[in-house]
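Most newcomers find our protein records easier to grasp once they have seen one. Sequence and backbone structure share a record, each on its own labelled line. Nothing more is needed to start thinking about how sequence determines fold. As an example, a complete record with its sequence and its structure tokens follows.
=====
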Amino acid sequence: MQPATLRPRIGLCACQATARWSVWNEDVVFVPRHYVRAVQRAGGAPLVLPPDDVWTADPDAVLDGLDGLILCGGTDVAPAAYGAEPHPRTDAPDVERDGFEIALARRALERDIPVLGVCRGMQLMNVAAGGTLVRHLPDRLGSDLHRHTPGSFADHPVALEEGSLAARAAGDTLHPTKSHHHQGIDRVGEGFEVTGWSVDDRVPEAIEAPERRFALGVQWHPEVDEGSRIIAALVEEAGRVLR
């Protein structure tokens, strides 16, 4: 564990929803605790980032206080963000969150701040770079392999390109994953390349920007796998400037 004064500050982009506890039913911003714990285990200091109009307009106002950024999972990126119409299975849009995270992702990439996108976060990175998404993979694949049961993770292996950031972060070129998504990468955004694929159906599972220090998107959920090294790799890279 790093000394407190040297812990890299990792921004975690928050979800927005309505939650009920005790006698209350309130609108909330939240980050699943798995992300927080994964960052802490790796020696980082997690900071929750709610959508904020000021930060959307001026991402440097928040990025100046961060050493790394994680774009967390959540609801679908709205198809309007990449010029498409909603699919019948598309989640209700969160335009505020989409706009906030696209602004942060673009500026973090410009500044070469380490960025990790998880599931929705990978898709959002791609959209932020001008890419597009498959709105409902079962229409193309004919199966629900990647989200067979809502609320449960699907376990399947991915193949990672040898020598890629994805493979180095994972520690291998064949990696078990926990998956829960129905959208996927279609046209790859500028500056990114696909470096990981589902073994079963070749759906893109990892993208990265080779010209950046650490710009990686993974379609699976490393935060729920205590044996995963993906988030630790982001925290380690974010902490290099503090040493």
